[in-house]
């Protein structure tokens, strides 16, 4: 296996190169998923759909990602890491292109499902690659670098996507993202080193049984479930709520994500370093508990001033991002290396499933009022706060394995 790493605390130039490329790949996955969320108000107008149907479009991606991830978990550790990553990446690019070709609600719903089927597996392979390529002592900062793709998506991707959607039509961001993905796919083919997975001659049922009978893995999965519920009880409806209820002009949405993204760009790697230095569990606990406060405050905003809205949303997105860096590093390190690919695929599938389930259930409480506002968002906010508090207790049960 090609793995030019050492036990030094600093990342080597080669490691930086690989991590930045993985972050770029993860950026396309992140953009493909989150781009639909701030476009909610525009999709409602142009496709003549309801806020609830926007939730269905979002959940179709996550539910398909969950189903196909579970189906692929039993074979993913039998495939060489680079090959598995590139094949799933190609599927995501094709799915994104189909979204660009969609012209109505049903076509977009199906295209999002296709993109999710590939994107879910691809996302888990990115973190599997990080887990196999980077030693545990440096995995917190490595995870922070790769996860910085979320911040870059907020700084550049989401504002640019909204600008293209406003300038042309809602399909155009998907065209440009497909082109970017194709470029990165070619680049990855030549740059990423191969990382052979350990030979596994086991049936699918045997692999699932071993993973799901591992207490540490089960605690990690429950941890992921709670963390996902906490996020997606509110995230899919933030853009709609902040425009309809808080009173933010729709053309200011890009600035809301831009400001949050710039701050998170620096906060992500910094959080990873703190997690490596002081302990991933400790950093997660502080950021997770603090994250419940702005979520509840945000749910009561009503015709607030733009500076106040930006302050609350920036704090909310900051704590969402910083709690996830140590959390993902903990999950990646909770399983033996030879089972990591399958476990992270299952973990990602569980995450995607709970994204869809959380979005769908909370969506049932979201009601579009005659005056253009929505009701029921506060229910999601309290579900989010309760779930993240419980996740802090569960996190203490997770042991670092490798």
Report on this structure.
- By secondary structure, the chain is mostly helical.
- The chain has a single domain (13-395), classed as MFS general substrate transporter like domains (Growth Hormone, Chain: A, Up-down Bundle).
- The chain is 76% helix and 1% strand.
- It has helices spanning 13-34, 40-46, 51-72, 81-101, 105-133, 139-167, 172-191, 204-212, 215-232, 238-244, 253-278, 280-298, 306-332, 337-365, 377-395, and strands at 367-368, 374-375.
- A two-stranded antiparallel ribbon has the order 1-2.
- The chain is globular and about 55 Å long.
Question: Would you summarize the structure shown here?
Answer:
This protein is 76% helix and 1% strand. The chain has 402 residues and is mainly α.
Spell the H/E element sequence.
HHHHHHHHHHHHHHEEH
Overall mean pLDDT: 84
Q: What is the third-level CATH name, the topology?
A: Growth Hormone, Chain: A
The dominant shape is: globular
Strand order in the sheet with the most strands? 1-2
Q: Give me the number of helical elements.
A: 15
- The end-to-end distance, rounded to whole angstroms, is 17 Å
| CATH architecture level-2 label | Up-down Bundle
Strand content: under 5%
- Into which percent range does the helicity of residues fall? over 70%
What's the total count of β strands?
2
The CATH homologous superfamily name equals: MFS general substrate transporter like domains
Structurally, the number of domains stands at: 1
Q: Report the C-alpha radius of gyration, rounded.
A: 20 Å
Biggest beta-sheet profile: 2 strands, antiparallel
> Structural class per helix/strand content?
mainly alpha
Uncertain runs: 1-7
User: For the record, what CATH class applies?
Assistant: Mainly Alpha
């Amino acid at each position: 296996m090609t793995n030019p790493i050492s036990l030094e605390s600093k990342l080597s130039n080669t490691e930086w190169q690989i991590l930045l490329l993985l972050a770029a790949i993860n950026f396309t996955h992140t953009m493909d998923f989150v781009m639909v969320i701030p476009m909610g108000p525009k999709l409602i107008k142009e496709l003549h759909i309801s806020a609830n149907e926007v939730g269905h479009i979002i959940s179709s991606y996550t539910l398909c990602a969950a189903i196909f991830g579970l189906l692929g978990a039993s074979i993913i550790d039998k495939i060489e890491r680079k090959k598995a990553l590139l094949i799933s990446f190609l599927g995501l690019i094709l799915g994104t292109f189909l979204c660009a070709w969609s012209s109505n609600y049903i076509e977009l719903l199906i295209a999002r499902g296709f993109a999710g089927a590939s994107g879910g597996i691809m996302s888990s392979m990115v973190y599997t690659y990080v887990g196999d390529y980077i030693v545990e002592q440096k995995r917190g900062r490595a995870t922070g670098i790769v996860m910085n793709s979320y911040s870059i998506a907020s700084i550049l991707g989401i504002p640019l996507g909204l600008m293209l959607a406003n300038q042309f039509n809602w399909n155009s961001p998907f065209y440009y993202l497909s082109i970017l993905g194709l470029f990165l796919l070619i680049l990855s083919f030549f740059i990423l080193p191969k990382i052979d997975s350990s030979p596994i001659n086991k049936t699918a049922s045997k692999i699932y049984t071993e993973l799901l009978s591992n207490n540490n893995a089960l605690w990690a999965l429950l941890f992921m479930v709670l963390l996902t519920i906490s996020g997606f009880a509110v995230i899919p409806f933030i853009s709609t709520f902040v425009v309809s209820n808080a009173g933010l002009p729709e053309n200011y949405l890009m600035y809301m994500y831009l400001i949050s993204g710039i701050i998170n760009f620096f906060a992500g790697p910094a959080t990873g370093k703190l997690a490596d230095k002081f302990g991933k569990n400790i950093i997660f606990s502080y950021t997770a508990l603090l994250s419940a406060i702005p979520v509840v405050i945000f749910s009561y905003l009503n015709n607030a001033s733009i500076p106040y809205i930006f302050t609350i949303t920036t704090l909310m997105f900051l704590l969402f991002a910083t709690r996830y860096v140590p959390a993902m590093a903990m999950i990646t390190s909770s399983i033996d290396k030879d089972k990591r690919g399958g476990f992270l695929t299952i973990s990602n599938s569980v995450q995607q499933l709970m994204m869809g389930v959380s979005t769908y259930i909370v969506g049932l409480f979201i009601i579009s009022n005659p005056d253009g506002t929505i009701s029921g968002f506060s229910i999601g906010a309290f579900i989010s706060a309760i779930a993240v508090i419980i996740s802090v207790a569960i996190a203490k049960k997770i042991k670092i394995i490798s």
